[in-house]
Amino acid sequence: MKAERNEYRQQYNDHWLATADPDGHPVDAILCPVGPSAAPRHGTSTYWLYTSQWNLLEYPGVSFPVTTVDPAKDVKDCGYVPKNPRDKYNHDQYDPKTYVDAPIGLQIITRKFEDEKCLAILEAIEKAMGRK
């Protein structure tokens, strides 16, 4: 099991480093969602692969709020057809009235031992967002 994990980590690291092929500079960081929706209500979160992947790889990450749910703007798409049962569960959870002011976040991920780079990128993003 440990050998499989380590092989997976190596393959992922090799893939990341391969992003340097075009210009010699690998991707510095990944900017991605924290989860499939706005912050879920307590006791309703059932899917954590958006963050657990990085724990498995031992990659540093930092999450940060970008905005919050505004019921006037973030109406539920009642015509949406879920892709699978998990997607249906997440879609069914959303009610703009219940989610008022729920944070919507992103996360920054960097490679192992690049914790300082991760935080420096967050600082640059927060500055660009007018928060620092």
Structure write-up:
The chain is α+β, with helices and mostly antiparallel strands. The chain has four helices and three strands. It has helices spanning 2-18, 49-57, 85-93, 115-128, and strands at residues 30-33, 61-68, 103-109. The radius of gyration is 18 Å and the shape is globular. The relative contact order is 0.20.
Compose a concise summary of this entry:
This protein is an alpha+beta fold. The protein has helices spanning 2-18, 49-57, 85-93, 115-128, and strands at residues 30-33, 61-68, 103-109.
The strands making up the biggest β-sheet line up spatially as 1-3-2
Report the sheet-strand fraction: 5-15%
Class of secondary structure makeup: alpha+beta
Number of helices: 4
Low-confidence stretches are: none
Rg over alpha carbons: 18 Å
Mean pLDDT level? 94
Topology:
Blueprint: H1 2-18, E1 30-33, H2 49-57, E2 61-68, H3 85-93, E3 103-109, H4 115-128
Which terms summarize this structure?
132 residues, alpha+beta, three-stranded antiparallel sheet, 4 helices, 3 strands, 37% helix
